[in-house]
Please model this.
Amino acid sequence: MGNKKRVLTGDRPTGPLHLGHYVGTLANRVRLQDQYEVFLLIADYHALTTRPEKADILASREYIREIVLDYLAAGIDPEKTTIYLQSDVPEVCELTLLFSMLVTLPRVERIPTLKDMIRDQKIENPSMGLMLYPILQAADILHVKAEIVPVGKDQESHVELCREIARRFNSLYGEVFPEPEALIGDVPTLPGIDGRAKMSKSLGNAIFLSDPPEEVARKVMQMFTDPARIRPDIPADPDAPHNVVFRYHEAFNDDKAEVEELKARYRQGKVGDVEVKRRLIAALERFLAPIRERRAYYAARPQLIDEILAAGAAKVRPISQATLAEAREAMGLSTRRLAELKAQLP
Ligand code: TRP
Model:
């Protein structure tokens, strides 16, 4: 076993990845893969918590492929990062069950992300599976003993619960798990093109990594701007949070001098929204062109996706099995020999 720290994170296969994912966590993942041992899972069990219908499951199979393409396109290197499908490693379910004994129902009910999901998706009677959502996530993280979890800000409360579970387990049964830390992206949550607080596929306000140039340009032209600024010669504040075009410039324009110059002219009432947007389109193209190129390369080789997922599962399963054996042993559940399982590790 290497002695690099482990990183684990993932996404539900509910749609293609967008710019919000990129700044929230993808950029961190790409950066981390050189320094750490990174695991990236596609959380198809988690997708079931709100969408258990067969048609949704079938649709998610297609999204799984799209997300792997998004990862590879964004610069995730499958030689460095282990990409796997959650349901290919069912050991995580047993760990979820063991952990579920250590968490009270009111504790789960207080988690803000779950409350939001229940409200936004108008779920009247949450399933037991949905209540297990954050516990399953803790099992994802802890079955590989990950110490760093790069996620968007909205997932912080899940990582906090994961830390609590690790602490509780260790204090009851002995040191088995690390207490992982969330690593939040450095750009504050990216707003949607409509000015709403969060970019999201379900809100229909996202620019996807896979959008072609015309689509990106069309979406930028639609972007929300200051409604009080009806003429370009009205001075206004580019740093006002509702000025989403500038939020995107800050996040994606690599020409920082251009961004400062546009902001200065905006404050003086010397630049029109159209110019600010045209320059954003150019900046986004500089950012997206190499991503599109890599995507096309992998899209032309569909069997690579299957190979990457199969290799990922083959790598994770023995790790997961060993952790589970260790947990069972610590709890006094197991009679199996730990050494034997550990010997199977690469
Ligand atoms: N809940 C995460 C999300 O919706 C996805 C996820 C599942 C995850 N398991 C994880 C993220 C483990 C980090 C670690 O974005």
The first strand starts at residue 6 and ends at 11. Residues 212 and 314 are 35 Å apart (CA to CA). The chain is about 55% helix and 5% strand.
